[in-house]
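cron nightly-structures :: item 1 of 1
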Amino acid sequence: MRFHTSYKVERVIVTGFLLVILAGAFLLWLSNNFIHRSVLSPVDALFMATSAVCVTGLGTVDLSADMGPLSQIIMLALIQIGGLGIMTAMMTLSLAAGRRIGIKGRIFFLGGLGMDGVQGALSLFSTVIRYTLFIEGAGALLFFIAFMLNGEAFPRSLYYAVFHAVSAFCNAGFSPYGGGLIRFNMTLLVPGVTMALVVLGGVGFPVFAECAACIRDRREHLSVYARLVLIMTGGLIAAGTLMMALADWDGAFGGMPVWAKLWNALFASVTARTAGFETVPSASLSGLGQAVMIILMIIGASPASTGGGVKTTTFGVLAISVWSELHRRRQTTFMNRGISERTSRRAISIIAIYLFTLLAGATLLTFIEGLPFSYILFEAASALGTVGLTLGITTELSAPGKLIIALLMFWGRVGLYSFISTLVTADGNSGIHYPSTNIPIS
């Protein structure tokens, strides 16, 4: 049942993200220029704050070399806020201050996760916080062990561990480690923990809550939504790994033993769907490998997660609709359940808007920057999908180019559909039924 309210939830969410980005940009500019004594332009500060809040990972400056300790901590806080969502952060602050969460707060919290209603908001919020703290804590512990084994000192290992745990779970892709994770491409622990955190952060909080409830209550079946998310997640990881291995077996992965080729192909498949970490530079991939990455970046993670993209369920509903149409079925079904026409129409609309925005942004950037379209398309897909992978052109962008990429990151995080809904007035159901007409399609 849809809960009707006079509050424009999408508008509040968009405004909240924008205010946090602006505040974060000011703090980054202030700390880097006056405390760290390293010049950070207002445009670069805005870009880095947007990338952190939108959990993207693209950077116009080197996080490890050009940003001081305080700036890095500010970035970490922005990543955590952006990963959990603005409404989740606001709800946390309200509870910490001893304030009661009213109807409006519950609507905004669930709206921030793409859900309607007010029931179950506090229970889901508790699950989100406990899940996040447990997963990030476990990940930090494993990262700490890995960095200590790599020869890092205790304080630095602890800092790296916490930063990477938050960044990986929030699908951000930022690393304060010089050179990122490329030096770990022949190891198991760091890439393995990173992939686990990325997947757990990308399946979505409602799916995790449902899985936890099934285990706790010993139920046998998950909802159709949860099963679709898990099937799509597993299928995309497997298909992406296979395609990446085939595309760069003797290319970017050449010279590695067989296990390392498969391991790094798996890592690329997992992180391409909105995480942005890399053990093999994206610029070294073949044209086919980069094309596969673009497709995975467009699809992205699942709803109500820390990731971006059009979402696994959107792609899944589209695939199911195509399959049903090819078989001339009257109703679109999945696991003996019908999918409403409105859901199918919304999936098509989201993908169409997403692809149009991607091509428009890439075309505009090509005119402004004068770089090869393939490089620009990869960068634009990475920004809109809030991924963070790059072919090495981010630091070369002009100020207008940086602002366009920042705008794509912002749209990708708040959701193009949600953003447009803040600008467009719903017509509603007028009650008028028009006669049908036949328009040939093919």
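cron nightly-structures :: done
Strands lie at 333-334, 337-338.
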